[in-house]
Amino acid sequence: MQMDRRTFVTTGIAAGAALALGRSPLALGAGSADEIRVGVAGIRSRGWSHVMGLNRLEGVRVVALCDVDQGILENRQRELAEKGTTTEIFRDFRDLIARDDIDVVSIATPNHWHAMQTVWACAAGKDVYVEKPISHNVREGRLMVEAASRYGRIVQTGTQSRSSSAIRDAIRWMHQGNIGKPTLARGLCYKPRRSIGKVDGPRDVPKGIDYDLWVGPAPMKPLGRRQFHYDWHWDFDTGNGDLGNQGIHQMDLCRWALGHERLPDRVVAYGGRFGYDDDGNTPNTLVSVLDYPEAPIIFEVRGLPNSLQAQKDNWGG
User: Fold this and answer.
1) How far is it, in rounded angstroms, from Cα 52 to Cα 203?
2) Which of 113, 97, 114, 116 is nearest to 105 (CA)?
């Protein structure tokens, strides 16, 4: 099977992400005659999975890495060099997309960067794979769709359930009316999360990180949490809590199964951050009601363990 560049973007990156997780939803052939050259941004964790998955695909090569953490950047470049893969490294995403020989960018940066980097990449003539949630807010998502259309690019997001043939078959079976007409969907994100702790004042930014580049379009504030990486998920300026971190996958399944391709008429949400006093400000307990008149979605996020004993057993506290 021959695979041209655009076919790759609609199938290969999703396959690469799945391969990095030990799954192979697509049966890929021998690859195309043309080499697909990819730059990956945000390579500490999720983006590193992108790199590993993409480099397994025939005819695809990761040629550039981007991260604001110089230590991570150099370590990842060295790891790839030891495997025989040469890459160029960049701290500023704008320098990466300035390269004419990069066809695709794969983005796994914090949520608040997704929209701006996607728009920039489209304007630079790149196709894009961008991790979930596709944007930090609804307005940004609109701008990303408009940019993809304006510049004639393909943009795919990381709601990987859409790439599962088994789930596609199940939802097609539902849409054929085999369970009748659904009147409600419930989505559940039950995933215990530890407290991120509480600091008594601004913290020093870890050595080697360009904090100005990391903050980017978010408000510039002193670092106010113990752990620099990952815990940005629990700050509304940069993350979306578990509703946008893990829950977005389940919410996407609800919308897909019900056939909803628009925003709800209204949203009502109630909850809070309970059980500990820390530097996070996103809810760890949240119920959201998405008002679709034909079939609403009720979505729950629960971030606390189900008992004090579970907390002691799992967290030692």
Assistant:
1) 33
2) 97
Contact 68, 209 (CB under 8 A): yes
Q: What is the structure's pLDDT at 47? A: 97
Read off the pLDDT of each residue in 9-32 and give the average, rounded to a whole number.
39
Say yes or no to pLDDT of 302 above 80.
yes
Q: What separation, in Å, do the N-terminal and C-terminal C-alpha atoms of the chain show?
A: 55
DSSP assignment, residue 45? T
Per-residue pLDDT tens over the stretch 85-140? 999 999 999 999 999 999 999 999 999 999 999 999 999 999 999 999 999 999 99
**Sign of the CA dihedral running 242, 216, 280, 143:** negative
* C-alpha distance from residue 213 to each of 143, 170, 176 (Å): 21, 43, 49
* Tokens linked to 115: 């929209």
Alpha-carbon distances of 244 from 5, 239, 271, 291, rounded to whole Å: 30, 8, 15, 18
Tokens 């990156």 sit on residue: 13
Beta-carbon contacts of 232 under 8 Å, excluding residues fewer than 6 positions away, are 110, 225, 238, 239
Q: How do the residues of the chain divide into helix, strand and coil, expressed in percent and rounded to 5?
A: 35, 20, 45
Phi, psi of 22 (to 5 degrees): 85, 15
Question: What is the torsion angle, in degrees rounded to the nearest 10, for the CA atoms of residue 174, residue 176, residue 179 and residue 181?
Answer: 100
Hey, what's the torsion of the CAs at 27, 10, 17, 239, to 10 degrees? -160
